Amino acid sequence: MRQAGRSLPEYRSVRGQGSILEAIADAALAAEITIQPVRRYGVDAAVLYSDIMVPVWAIGFGVEVTPGVGPVIDPPFRHRSDLRRLRPLEPEIDTPFVIETVERLVAELDVPLIGFAGAPFTVASYLVEGGPSRTYSRTKALMYGDPGLWADLLDRLADLAIASIRSQVTGGASAIQLFDSWAGALSPPDYERFALPASQKVLRAAGELGVPRIHFGVSTGELLGPMAEAGADVVGVDWRVPLDTARDRVGPHLALQGNLDPAVCLAPWPAAAAAARDVLRRNRGHPGHIFNLGHGVLPETDPAMLEQLVELVHREGRADGPWPAGAAEVAT
Amino acid sequence: MRQAGRSLPEYRSVRGQGSILEAIADAALAAEITIQPVRRYGVDAAVLYSDIMVPVWAIGFGVEVTPGVGPVIDPPFRHRSDLRRLRPLEPEIDTPFVIETVERLVAELDVPLIGFAGAPFTVASYLVEGGPSRTYSRTKALMYGDPGLWADLLDRLADLAIASIRSQVTGGASAIQLFDSWAGALSPPDYERFALPASQKVLRAAGELGVPRIHFGVSTGELLGPMAEAGADVVGVDWRVPLDTARDRVGPHLALQGNLDPAVCLAPWPAAAAAARDVLRRNRGHPGHIFNLGHGVLPETDPAMLEQLVELVHREGRADGPWPAGAAEVAT
């Protein structure tokens, strides 16, 4: 469960008041925050505590992550000359703390560690908008107005993601997750033209490292077909698409991850349990399913609710049958 | 095109600095703002300049619409006792300016006027959250946690919408549009349980008035099936779902409205024209299609772009064949 720490008192007590980037740069703290939900909930894998802006921040693009707002980029990416600000990432020099966090975690964890990278489209949307957006109008204007520059931008961001992923896998991460949180703002033809190629490049490169790849998105129900072609082993599904519908769109050969509405965890337990069972039921016994929330844990979630949820899924979700090798590396 | 005025210099020159609610309460101004895009673009219908919060504001629920933020509700809806704050709407007393705006418009317009109402789910989300939200966590917590209170809340909001619609149709509106902008935050089973019944109540009551009904949503691709059952004559489709996919989900008997990405209007004309032609092509010659943007016009849109767009659709979009009676009342 992504951002599972946010609801934990032990997270709030170690996290301090600094920006998330400062916490990520402190390997001991980042490792502790990564482990906390595994310790508390007994989930089957850990997701590296990180942020999709880490590589662009580390190469000095002018990124801050403001609490309550999100990433703020000053100055934003606007012109071809801004490409020069996107030099290659040298993980040992630029993000040694990421490598150290991964190494600490691999030494300490009993479960697999899932590495973390931002998909080029979503990272680009922040760079171009200068911060969070509801409409992505500057991003789309650049993409339509200068497709050549857009492609060059996404290609550089793909290279940054690849370099970061490689350092995480070399450090011992067992799988990687590519976060394309805002791809759902695109129509399917625009996704295929303007976002998919760079994500494919990242996922292919990750495949060469021999680890399973999870492809995460939100509001991407209509994009599940092309996402299934992007090269990942696991396709994320938010709660807007019933899991059986998602399976029909993705086909039988990939694993799915999801897809409980995080807000259900604010419901009384019987309602939450019913919703979790509905997800399990809609999986129709397919062995390739990583049970998860469809988006990050909401900060106001009661940890006791997540404990019960993990227990229910462990008790009832495994009766379906054995897991195939590929998915098992991530999910058990 | 909803919010088509926002990009017009003539809109900015009459609009003033007040809140949108003040502008709506000034019938002469609201009528002028409604007409401006019809005058400029030659579109086939006018959408009443209004806001989904007008009825709850008019009965004194404590609503402000803050520029740059959106609706702010103080105090929000939290307890059963808050139902008392939702008394019935008496349009002649509470919103005489809406009736006057409609009457002025009907006298002046050469095209049909589409009336305006907020769907109970979306209005409720503002009342419960106290303002705009990205997660709808308080809304969903109430809906799951106290389904009885939730149903009572939505039923009252349905009655408010019905009273407002009735006054608009009596005043001369030729059709109505029900705006459920945030229904796309719900999973399909939650939509059917927690949002659909109240929308059905509104759409049925509007049907008894004998006018065509348009059912608008955003990110509602997965809800098109249930929305097709809700009782509207026209189902809105945002740009995330290709129009041919939407047609498959809605079936052949209803009209569709949409579905160009508003951000395409920020592209150079050849890219925008290609995207508009793709929408027309995906309609596959079905006579029940109201060409529109999939969401409101973005404020930074160049009016010249929308002029060209309307011209293209008028020139190329009508070769398909005659419009059936139901859709023609709205669209020609």
Description of the molecule:
The structure is a homodimer of 332-residue chains. Chain A has 332 residues and is of the alpha/beta class. Chain A has one domain: TIM Barrel. Chain A is built from 16 helices and 9 strands. Chain A has a 7-stranded parallel β-sheet, sandwiched between helices. In chain A, strand 7, helix 13 and strand 8 form a beta-alpha-beta unit. In chain A, helix 1 packs antiparallel against helix 3. The first copy, chain A, is globular and about 55 Å long. In chain A, 53% of the residues are buried. Chains A and B meet through helix 8, helix 10 and helix 14 of A and helix 8, helix 10 and helix 14 of B.
Q: What is the correct CATH architecture of chain A?
A: Alpha-Beta Barrel
Strand order of the largest sheet of chain A: 1-4-5-6-7-8-9
Stated plainly, the CATH topology of chain A is called: TIM Barrel
Please, what is the average pLDDT of chain A? 94
Most strands sheet of chain A:
7 strands, parallel
Secondary-structure element series of chain A: HHHEHEEHHEHHHEHHEHEHEHEHH
Residues in helix, % of chain A: 40-55%
Number of DSSP E strands of chain A: 9
Radius of gyration of chain A: 19 Å
How much strand of chain A?
5-15%
